[in-house]
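STRUCTURE:
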């Protein structure tokens, strides 16, 4: 899809979803509850702002010494028998994982939540090869049954009601209708337990990777990732190279911070470390463990000192929750794996600046995302950086002409004064042509009022005052 068609698709979806008052009500209600819960848990920190600063400094160290920490991580993993694979591109990552699956003659794959898998379209690739792929996270399982991508980084099915889910389970799983959350959960659990037992391979993502100990940290609320890792004979973890943290003790800060910023919890229910395949004397775990480290243009972002801190992201989703754009257009409108402010910052880097520059332009620049980010990423300024870089890389002929004309007029006082007088004369006529082809400011006035030209400029007022 071309850049112009991507932008048109975004605009068309946004127009439809912003008119859907039911959808807006669902999202606003969910996020208001989140705001209350997050506020309570953040206040439990001794000093939330100091915690943010400490987290930002730790991630700065990790990202600016990424080569050293990755080597340390890999050495420790391999020492325990883990097979580590480096994937430069999404295609290479898919080929590595499909190769592992093929070598094991696997048929059924169980998968816990992994945004990196969504990023490289892994499910589609596996299904096209004839493998059965089942998402074990409840929210991911629901959207999989609906043949939809996740709506939100943390809450994949936040746009659905109990009735929507009940109807879905009734249609896809043959269950009885119910509005009780516990019953809906048990319906999914009964279906998924069979898949755990049948699965040949379990695929997980990762929240953090600890260089000091060579361990993968996975945090979850349902226990599904533990079953995904423990029951199949082969386990695969797919993670971006930016997930590295230097030391085990860093988790003392990052685990409660991720839980607080992501879901308004003090700590996530299940926090598990994986360091390798089943060791002698251990009762469970995979016989074989593979870790796939994904670049997929992350090193290009790493090479940009101005925007490198976007790699600090811990995928908590907090910036989405406070963003007025996301709250109105929803997650699916973005048309990409990562939505909201962080998605608008990193997607142009991961998938092409010109094709996805419209996301950086779809922002109010209110700064709420930067204010809420637990690792202090300068998100709203990065949106401006993307806009600037897109314009420099491929300038618009119309914009260049407009700015040259403005500069020509603004640098000539007499011409500037004359243009002001003309604008004052023509302003009363604007309501007659507003929104028509004759309106020179049509794209602006379609959703905004045109600012009136002052009857008297400051310079004129000052001269008349004297």
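SEQUENCE:
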């Amino acid at each position: 899809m071309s850049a112009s068609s991507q932008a048109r698709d975004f605009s068309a979806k946004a127009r439809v979803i912003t008119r859907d008052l039911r959808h807006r009500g669902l999202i606003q209600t969910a996020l208001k509850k989140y705001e209350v819960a997050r506020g309570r848990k953040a206040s439990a920190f001794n000093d939330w702002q100091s915690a943010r600063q400490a987290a930002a400094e730790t991630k700065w160290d990790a990202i600016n010494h990424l080569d050293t920490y990755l080597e340390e991580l890999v050495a420790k993993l391999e020492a325990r028998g883990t097979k580590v694979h480096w994937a430069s591109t999404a295609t290479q990552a898919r080929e590595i994982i499909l190769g592992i699956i093929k070598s094991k003659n696997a048929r059924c794959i169980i998968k816990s939540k992994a945004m990196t898998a969504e990023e490289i379209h892994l499910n589609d690739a596996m299904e096209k090869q004839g493998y059965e792929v089942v998402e074990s996270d409840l929210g991911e399982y629901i959207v999989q049954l609906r043949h939809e991508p996740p709506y939100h980084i943390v809450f994949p099915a936040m746009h659905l009601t109990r009735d929507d889910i009940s109807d879905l389970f009734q249609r896809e799983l043959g269950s009885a209708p119910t509005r009780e959350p516990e019953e809906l959960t048990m319906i999914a659990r009964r279906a998924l337990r069979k898949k755990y037992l049948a699965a040949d391979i379990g695929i997980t993502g990762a929240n953090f990777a600890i260089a000091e100990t060579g361990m993968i940290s996975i945090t979850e609320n349902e226990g599904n990732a533990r079953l995904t890792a423990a029951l199949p004979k082969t386990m695969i973890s797919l993670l971006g190279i930016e997930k590295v943290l230097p030391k085990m003790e860093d988790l003392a800060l990052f685990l409660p911070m991720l839980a607080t910023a992501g879901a308004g919890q003090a700590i996530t229910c299940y926090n598990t470390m994986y360091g390798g395949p089943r060791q002698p004397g251990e009762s469970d775990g995979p016989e074989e463990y593979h870790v796939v480290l994904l670049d997929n243009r992350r090193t290009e972002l790493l090479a940009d000192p101005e925007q490198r801190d976007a790699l600090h992201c811990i995928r908590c989703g907090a910036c989405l929750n406070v963003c007025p754009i996301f709250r109105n257009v929803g997650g699916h409108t973005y048309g990409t794996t990562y939505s909201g402010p962080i998605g608008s910052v990193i997607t142009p880097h991961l998938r092409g600046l010109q094709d996805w520059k419209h996301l950086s332009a779809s922002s109010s620049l209110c700064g709420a995302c930067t204010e809420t980010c637990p690792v202090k990423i300068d998100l709203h300024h990065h949106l401006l950086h993307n806009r600037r870089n897109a314009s420099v890389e491929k300038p618009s002929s119309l914009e260049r002409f407009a700015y040259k004309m403005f500069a020509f007029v603004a640098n000539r006082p007499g011409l500037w004064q004359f243009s002001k007088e003309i604008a004052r004369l023509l302003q009363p006529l604007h309501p007659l042509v507003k929104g028509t082809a004759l309106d020179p400011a049509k794209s602006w006035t379609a959703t905004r009022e045109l600012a009136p030209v002052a009857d008297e400029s400051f310079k004129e007022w000052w001269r008349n005052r004297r």
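REMARK: The chain has 24 helices and ten strands.
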